[in-house]
Amino acid sequence: MEHTEPHSTEPEMANRQGAAQRPNGAQGKICQFKLVLLGESAVGKSSLVLRFVKGQFHEYQESTIGAAFLTQTVCLDDTTVKFEIWDTAGQERYHSLAPMYYRGAQAAIVVYDITNQDTFGRAKTWVKELQRQASPTIVIALAGNKQDLANKRMVEYEEAQTYAEENGLLFMETSAKTALNVNDIFLAIAKKLPKYDQNQGQSGQGQGRRLAEGDQGAKTPGNCCK
Amino acid sequence: MSTDCEEDDADSLFDINLKINDSEFDIPSVATPSLESILSDMESEDGSIDNASLNSFQSTDMKLHSVLSHCILQGITSQITSARERVGAGWATVIANRLKFIAVGTSHGFILNFDAEQNLCWCYHDSGTDDQGAISALAFNLDSTRLLAGYERSYIVMIDVTNGNVLRRLPDAHAPQSSVLHLRFTFKNNLALCGDSRGCVFSLTFHRRLGVRSWNSRCLFSGATGEVCVFEPLVHDYDTNFLSQNVLVAMATMSKVIVISVYPQVKCLYSRPLPRVSTSLPLLCWQLIPMTKMRQPVLTWGRGSEINFTRLIIHGTKNIKLVALKTIQLSYSFIAMEWLSMQHLALIDSRENLHLIDVRSEKELETVELENVELVYSSAHFKALAIGGGVSEAFSLAGEKACYNSLSSRGDQLFLLGTQAVHLIKLRSWSERLMYLSERGRWADALSLAAEEGNNREKIATLLLQRYLVNVDVVDKESLIAAVNCCVKLNQVDVLCNELWDAVSNDFFMKELYYSLLTDYIVNSKLSRLTPFITQSLVAHLESKRDVQILENVLLMLELDCLDLHQALNICRRHKLYNAWIHLTTKTIGDYASPLTEFLSELTPFNQRLGNTMLVYVSSCLAGLGYPNGNIPKECIKKVKFDVLRCLETLHSINYKENEKTYPYLRALLKFNIRECLNVIELAFTEVEFSGEMGLLQRNRLVKILMEIVTPPEFSECEEINLACFICRLVTSDRINLEDNLLGINFEKLMQSTSGPINLRDQMEREQSWLDLIISNRLKNISSDDMIKRALESKCFRVAEYLYNLDKNYCRIVECYLNDMIRKNEVFDYIVKYIDVNERCIRDQFSSHFSEIITIDHRKTVEIVVEYFPELIPQFCDTLEGDDNLRFQFLDGLINCDVKLPSNISEIYLDLLCVYQKEKVKEFVEQRLCTVKSALEITQKYDLHEATAILLEQDGEWFEALELYLDHGFVDRALNLCIRGTEHLDSDEAKKLWIFLLEHEKNNKSISLRQLLHSTAPYIHSSQLLDFIFNVNFCDIKTSLLEIYTDYLIDTYLNTINLKLLGEDIQQSLAKAIAKNRRGISFMNSCDLCHGTLSSRNGESTIIATWGCGHCFHRSCSVCPNLEELMCPLCKKKTSDSSHLHLNRKIEPSASVKANIRPDLEGHF
């Protein structure tokens, strides 16, 4: 993973004072995106995020309360994309919380369980809700999780694929357990997001820390800095 | 002068200027961009003077040392140096500035004029004025077109500033043989003022007639009446209309400050004495100061260490007043004073330190040492050395440190003329200060300064922050504190959470500090939003710190959408942060029933914190209020109330198990604290949801549920009674209506007798409810007797009393009181209240329950006995037999009430007293209430010797008493006894007493001999006393002996005098007697006995006896044979002996007195 210097755009004041420009190269573009995971409970949202952020998988992932927050940074060509991930709870009682998180989110992953038809139906209602209430530019991805249990499949790949195409969604079948498509779906989202430096005020930040903290992030397949 | 002015020609240059005054002269006296640009080059990019930002100085407590900047004007300095070196211009002596120009005068009569870029415009030197010496004063006119230059040797020239040509020469404008010290133009361009070393002030008027320039001078103030040290005309752009018509000048002489009007007429407006400091000169300054809305001219004047501010108030053009504003006392003595901007005074003290003072707050903001400036002093001019003096001594002494012409201010800048260079002191604006501090790496100061400003400075402050973060590799503590403060003040959450975090995250200690700072700001509700990432780490950090209370506060204060709920709620569960948990769940999910369901398993009577939290939570939910703070959104209130109530009324919990009891939530709350829980419900009953028809049904339903839940054995009798009371309250106030059978059950519960103890509060409530029921007539189906029985059984004595009262069955009421644990003490009130009501038979009840009553409060009992039943005292005393303590307290109370007890009771008391309060026995015995004999027996029984002795004394057994005292070492008492004995006994007995004492003491010596002698002396004769004293220290008796000796001397002396007096008396009486005897005696010629004539008519001789008393008779008539021994039979007086007897009588008493006098030694010891 490429390590960019934090001060990609020197503040005006510093420039005027002639402070030396740091040798940080021209590529230090940093984008920060808010991403929200939605879906029925026990479809594997938390596992998916845990796999992406820490590269871990727990067979018995505890049920999320409210929403959990995680961050992960990926490199995409010359851009560093930093995801602020809100992993929401799937239980019905927390449904009312979701708007707090998807409002102002630039991306959403709606997760369903391919072994459970109901979760797919629920995913559809989530997509509808997002389309209706979230930001119009939101990038929505549909993730059919638990691909490792394909032998118990209840939702056909084509069915979901068709639905995704109709609604302009990114679609992948993933497996948090085997890490299939996990990074890919996040990267796909990162690619689809608008890359203009959307937050001037938050330039100058170093992602080194974030990586150090989520150590496994560095070990994720080298697909982030191709 | 004024007439001259009017005659001015239209084409006179200055007249033209005068005419365009209003429009053209309206130039601010501060700052034009051109000069600023120099400063900007030297200082910063931000040239505009920002007076508003200077406000921040007022709030700055710390001395940042960033307010003043100091630099050398190189351009000017090098020109002066080269002029000195190349053309021999000499040293700089004077500096003046106005608008675009700065002029410097030198010691050899050169004037150098510089423009704003420090370029030399021209250099003037008139060889004709060579002999005039140094330039001693310079003055520009207001629009800087003319320059007046005064010389040391009294010459004055006027120069055209644009080209340096001389326009006028004024060789003799003022007093000859004096140096020009001051020159000032007034607001009128054709009027200038000149002050010289004689202390005189002249007005200089300039004219131009037919192209010929002329001038006129007039003496305004003569030095003869007081030397003017300095003057300053008011030229500030205040009110041009006023200023063009009035010329005001402030002057300071050696002793006072005066303000005069020079034009239109000369008039003194103001005069105040100056502090008398002979070594320093007075100082004057005008400045416009913003007051309310307008800027008002203020005269600053002072001397030594005192500064005064006087405000000029003008109404119209005529009415001019000066009002004193304030006085500042400084700790140093200053020699120069100039304004820097409108709020700051620059003062140079006598040690050449420049102090910057904020006028409003009177605080010193900064001190700059000017030692290296080498300030130019013009004391030589003040002493007029060049023209041979002629200056008064006071003037030259004061002028020792004169530097009026070495300073020149403009706006917020101050030019200082040093011997080597021209210096510039400048106030920094806010942004300049930030720049200055940040360049020096004083980030903490810079950031604190940045945080102070709130209005429209966020951008600069943000830039500063970023620059800070870029430039600082290792964050230090102070700057981090300042940076966090700055971020919070400017609401820069992004900077705070991203850049600043990056800066601290690698340093453990800084991270700790960062977290604690954040926590402080959050807890003090100055910060409510962080990025989710920082929130997450902060929460994790606080959890690791184990300070859960702070963690809870933080969770309560932070915005919900920046919290990682999963993390936060888990932590809350783990650490039992109930409040935070409830806050987060209810506010985010809006699930108000979940706190009840969530903590059901933990809600035990032992978990006080949770129990109370739950009760308050339920209560506030039912009242439609948010918990732990805030409000429930209006549209949700109804739902919340419904949810919570439904939850309470839920028959089974979600995780229903076989053994679960019904209504688990309500049951848990009731089990936790039934009373508070019922209170919550009662409170809730006042809400809208519980009112009306539907509300009644709701209430009934809830009460039935409660009755269903609260049953033994799970709930104790007390708890049942609690519920019963609660229901009774509702019933009596008609808030529920229950079926009769339920009511009956409830009443039964209320009236049941308890097996265990019941706490007082419950008991009281129960009685109250019961009474309420009786009063509201709801228990009419139970007979009175039955009820009394039940009331007594269940110990509801208040109810019983009430019923007895109803039945007029008074004789058991006192008993009710006595049995009632709560109202025992009220029995006295009851007794006192009804003591006179016979039918209440208080007396009988009192007597029969006396021992119980006295146990409650013996004091009150005694009071009642003394007041109402004194005759029953013996009876009561007998009643108490066997309980000595009570008996004693009772009797003691009586004694204290001064009741005279009969002797037998007194003896009982004495006996008890001996047991309980031995120290009071003596006192009591002295009252002689008991018979002596029995009392003696008692005291002897208890070996109370003192008391026994007192009793013996009372019985007249003095010696026994004395013996007792002495045996037990009460020597003092023994002494007193002896003294008393002397009074009561005859002298022999008394003497025996004393001797007994002395004898005893001889062996024991428990009292010092001196003391003993002292006490004994008045009663026993010295000689006897001395018998007892042997083998003693001489010292002990020395005084005694001395006194005896002195007494002896006195007695001897008295005796001598007595004898002398007696001798005289005898002599006198003798003389009297002799005189008497020599008296003639006349008598009648008849015998007083026989009444016959004495003379013998018949010639026979008769012997006649004659006495001194004048009686005479025949010798023969008197029967006595011996005439000499006879008295006059009539007077029966022994005439011859009478005088003798008389004398003897006189002597005797004196002798007896003498014999009786005992040496009164009392006073001598």
UniProtKB/TrEMBL annotation, chain A:
Gene3D superfamilies listed in its UniProt record: P-loop containing nucleotide triphosphate hydrolases (3.40.50.300)
EC number assigned by the record: 3.6.5.2
GO biological process terms, semicolon-separated: protein transport
Name assigned to this protein: small monomeric GTPase
Root EC class: hydrolase
SUPFAM superfamilies to which the protein is assigned, alphabetical: P-loop containing nucleoside triphosphate hydrolases
A UniProt-annotated Pfam family: Ras
Cellular component annotations (GO), alphabetically ordered: early endosome
Compositionally biased intervals (Basic and acidic residues): 1-10
Annotated GO MF terms: G protein activity; GTP binding
Family assignment from sequence similarity: Belongs to the small GTPase superfamily. Rab family.
Region entry Disordered, spans: 1-25, 197-226
Keyword GTP-binding in annotation: yes
Intracellular or extracellular location(s): Early endosome
Reactions catalysed, as given in the entry: GTP + H2O = GDP + phosphate + H(+)
Top-level division of the source organism's lineage: Eukaryota
Keywords from the named record: Endosome, GTP-binding, Hydrolase, Lipoprotein, Nucleotide-binding, Prenylation, Protein transport, Transport
UniProtKB/TrEMBL annotation, chain B:
GO biological process, one term: endosomal vesicle fusion
Signal peptide: none
InterPro entries associated with the record: Vps41/Vps8, Vps8_central_dom, WD40/YVTN_repeat-like_dom_sf, WD40_repeat_dom_sf, Znf_RING
Transmembrane segments: none
UniProt keyword annotations, A-Z: Metal-binding, Zinc, Zinc-finger
Ranges of residues in domain RING-type: 1087-1132
PROSITE patterns per the UniProt record, alphabetical: ZF_RING_2
GO cellular component: HOPS complex; late endosome
Family annotation (PANTHER family): VACUOLAR PROTEIN SORTING VPS41, VACUOLAR PROTEIN SORTING-ASSOCIATED PROTEIN 8 HOMOLOG
Family note: Belongs to the VPS8 family.
Name of the protein described by the UniProt record: RING-type domain-containing protein
Organism: Henosepilachna vigintioctopunctata
